[in-house]
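LAB NOTEBOOK - FOLDING QUEUE
OPERATOR: T.R.
BATCH SIZE: 2
PURPOSE: Compare the predicted structure-token outputs for two unrelated chains run back to back under identical settings.
PRIORITY: normal
REVIEWER: second-year student, initials M.K.

ITEM 1
FIELD SEQUENCE / FIELD STRUCTURE:
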Amino acid sequence: MILGDSLGWIANIGFIVGAIELTKRKKIGFLYQLIANLICMVVGIILKLTSLIAISIVLMAINFKGYIDWRKSELG
């Protein structure tokens, strides 16, 4: 499916940009990762791939925890 593949590539770019931003210690990287995971979840729903939906949910939870931990360390 062309739509699913196109969305998958957009998500891949989001993951890469997010990872780059996180290595620069910029919190915007979490937003890129979240958007990329949401896109992957949509692709999983379109293609009926429960494994992709599941890993997207797990990675979103990990990113959310990372963001919370980052905020806590900033606040002292």
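ITEM 2
FIELD SEQUENCE / FIELD STRUCTURE:
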Amino acid sequence: MTNDRIVYSYDAFARRLEWTFGDGSTVYYTIPHDEFLEPICNAALIHGFKQKIADAAAIARNPETGKSATMADKRAAMQKVVDQLNDGMWNAERTGGTGNVGGLLAVAIAAVKGLPIERVREFLKGKTKAQRDAMALVSPYREKIAELIAARTKDVDTNEMEDELNDL
């Protein structure tokens, strides 16, 4: 049985893009950067920026509330990437190695305690990953996290995923 995954790699020294398929076959492209015509470079540049910004809208849930993402949420996510690019950063800046302090734990604590999410995030920034992980196991936060995950995943077909795992 073949794996239907496609794996991408890039060799900067050889200027070579390569896609390897589950059956072992490959498609590759060597970038002749000295020979590129300006219109091709411009088209590639515009495509990259367009895709980067549009990808930000591919969110199913509002990260703060866990509810389905609205058009306003998607627009805000795209604007955040535009602002980041205007600040000269391709990827969002990471701060302090605290992980996603706006994640499920923060939402759960805010909901259970009735606190503003920003206060909870600020509280969690000062905690280690081990402390945050331990807090996520404490009732009632554990139950609230399970409830949030259930809401986010209600349309996921886990039987199909199990079938895929069995094929590995």
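REVIEWER COMMENT (ITEM 2): Residues 83 and 134 are 35 Å apart (CA to CA).
FOLLOW-UP: none requested
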